[in-house]
Specification:
Layout lengths: L2 H14 L14 H11 L1 H19 L7 E7 L14 E10 L4 H67 L5 H35 L23 H11 L1 H25 L3 E9 L7 E9 L8 H70 L5 H36 L5
Antiparallel strand pairs: 1-2, 2-3, 3-4
Length: 422
C-alpha cells in the first residue's frame, strides 16, 4: 500500500468511524442525575430549608398567648420587723394573664404564616437557580469534553497527514514547505487541546461544587446529549412566568404580610389590650380570713404620651406595604424582560442547531473527503487539504456549540419562567 493510499484509509477511518470512549455508559453522569444531586446536596438549598423550618415553627408560636404570671404578695408587714412575713396583715397568691384585643392574635398568626410562605418562595427561587446553574455547568463540561475529543481526533489526522507528507517529500512529490505547514497545523491543534483540557477541568470543578462534591472529582458525561425543543410561544411564556416564577409568588406573599402588619398596627392604635387576674387572699388578723380578689387592667393606646408611637407604627407599616407592592411590579417587569431575552436567544440557538443538522456537518465531511481525494490525485495544493480539515473541525465544534447554546439558553428561560419547559 502506497503512502498516499495508506493516508487516505487512515484519515477516512478517523473521520467516519465511531468514537471509542474510555468509560462505559454506566460510569457517565447524565444531566438528570447531576441536577438531582445538586438539588439534594447543595448547601445553599439546605440553608433555606432550615430557614423555612424555623419560619414554620415561628408561625406555630403565633397562636399562643404570652406566659401567665403568678403574683405573691405580703401586705402590711411592719417596718419594725421587715423580714417577719408571718406578721403581715394580708397574704395573697394569684395568677395574671394578658389578652390582646379581639382579632390581634389572628393577625399575628397571619403575619407569621405569610413570612413562612415568603421564605418558601425564596427556597423555590434558589432551587430554580441551582437547577439552571447545574444545567449550564453540565453543558460547559459537555462542550469542553467534546472539544478535547475532536482535537485529539484531529491531532491523529494531522499526524497521519504529516507521516504521509514526509514520505511523499522523500520521493520528491511535494515540497518541504508542505511538511512545515502540516507540522505548524499540529502545533496549533496541540495549543487548542491544552486550552480545551483546561476548560474541561474548570467546568468539572464548577459542576462538582454545585453538587457539593470534592472539586477535583473526575466526571465523564455521555458523548451526546438530547437537546429538547421549546414550542411555547412568547405570550404563553409571559403568562406562565407571571403565574409560576417563585420571586413573583414570594412578592405576592410579602404584600399580604405587609397588609396584615398594617391592619395589626391600626388595631394597636385603636384598641386596648387586657390583663385579667385572680388572687387568693389570706388575712390572719381578720375574722373572715379567706378571701379572693379579681382584677382587670386595660392599656390606653391613645394616651397623649403614647399616641404618637402608635401613629408612626401605622405609617411604617403603610410604607412597607407600598414597598412590597412596588417590589412586585419591579420583579414583574424584570421577569418579562428576562423571558423575552432568553426566549430570543433560545430560538436563535435552535435555528443555528437546525442549520448544522440540515447539512453543514455533512457538507464539511464531503468537502474534506473531496479535498483528500483531489490531493491524492495531485489536483489541489496541500493548503487546500488543510483548509478542508480545519473546516471539518470547525463544523463539528460548531454543532456542539449550537447544541450547548440552546441547552443553556433554555435553562435560563426556564429559570426566568420558573418551571420546566420540557
Amino acid at each position: 500500500m502506497t503512502p498516499t493510499v495508506w493516508m487516505g484509509v487512515a484519515i477516512l477511518n478517523l473521520v467516519t468511524g465511531t468514537i471509542v470512549h474510555g468509560a462505559g455508559a454506566e460510569n457517565r453522569l447524565i444531566l438528570l442525575h447531576a441536577v438531582q444531586e445538586a438539588l439534594k446536596n447543595n448547601p445553599e438549598i439546605h440553608v433555606l430549608k432550615y430557614k423555612l423550618q424555623s419560619a414554620h415553627a415561628r408561625s406555630d408560636q403565633a397562636t399562643y398567648l404570652e406566659d401567665p404570671e403568678i403574683a405573691i404578695q405580703f401586705g402590711g408587714v411592719p417596718f419594725s420587723q421587715p423580714t417577719s412575713l408571718i406578721r403581715s396583715d394580708t397574704n395573697s397568691i394569684g395568677i395574671r394573664q394578658r389578652f390582646p384585643f379581639f382579632g390581634k392574635l389572628s393577625l399575628k398568626e397571619k403575619i407569621a404564616v405569610q413570612e413562612a410562605k415568603v421564605v418558601e418562595q425564596e427556597l423555590r427561587t434558589k432551587e430554580r437557580e441551582i437547577m439552571a446553574m447545574a444545567k449550564i455547568a453540565y453543558a460547559d463540561l459537555f462542550m469542553a469534553q467534546r472539544a478535547v475529543e475532536i482535537l485529539r481526533e484531529q491531532l491523529e489526522i494531522i499526524r497521519t497527514i504529516i507521516g504521509a507528507t514526509e514520505a511523499r517529500y522523500r520521493v520528491g512529490r511535494v515540497t518541504q514547505q508542505d511538511v512545515f505547514k502540516a507540522q505548524l497545523e499540529q502545533s496549533q491543534i496541540l495549543s487548542q487541546l491544552i486550552v480545551a483540557e483546561e476548560e474541561a477541568d474548570i467546568a468539572a470543578v464548577k459542576l462538582n461544587t454545585l453538587m457539593y462534591r470534592p472539586p477535583r472529582t473526575p466526571i465523564l458525561v455521555p458523548p451526546d446529549i438530547a437537546v429538547g425543543d421549546s414550542t411555547v410561544n412568547l405570550a404563553a411564556l409571559d403568562d406562565m412566568a407571571l403565574m409560576s416564577r417563585p420571586e413573583l409568588r414570594g412578592a405576592e406573599q410579602e404584600i399580604q404580610r405587609a397588609e396584615a402588619a398594617y391592619e395589626l398596627a391600626d388595631r394597636n392604635r385603636k384598641y386596648p389590650d387586657f390583663m385579667l387576674g385572680w388572687d387568693y387572699m389570706r388575712m390572719p388578723t381578720e375574722m373572715q380570713k379567706d378571701r379572693y380578689a379579681a382584677m382587670m387592667t386595660i392599656t390606653i393606646p391613645f394616651s397623649p404620651w403614647t399616641a404618637g408611637k402608635r401613629t408612626f407604627e401605622v405609617e411604617e407599616s403603610l410604607a412597607e406595604m407600598r414597598v412590597a407592592r412596588s417590589n412586585r411590579e419591579a420583579i414583574k417587569n424584570m421577569t418579562l424582560g428576562q423571558v423575552g431575552a432568553a426566549e430570543a436567544r433560545a430560538q436563535a440557538a435552535k435555528r443555528s442547531l437546525e442549520l448544522y443538522r440540515e447539512g453543514l456537518l455533512t457538507q464539511a465531511e464531503i468537502s474534506f473527503n473531496s479535498a483528500l481525494s483531489a490531493y491524492q490525485a495531485g489536483r489541489v495544493e496541500f493548503v487546500n487539504l488543510l483548509e478542508a480539515q480545519r473546516a471539518l473541525r470547525e463544523a463539528r465544534m460548531g454543532y456542539y456549540k449550537a447544541s450547548v447554546s440552546f441547552m443553556q439558553n433554555l435553562a435560563e428561560l426556564e429559570r426566568a419562567v420558573g418551571r420546566e419547559l420540557q
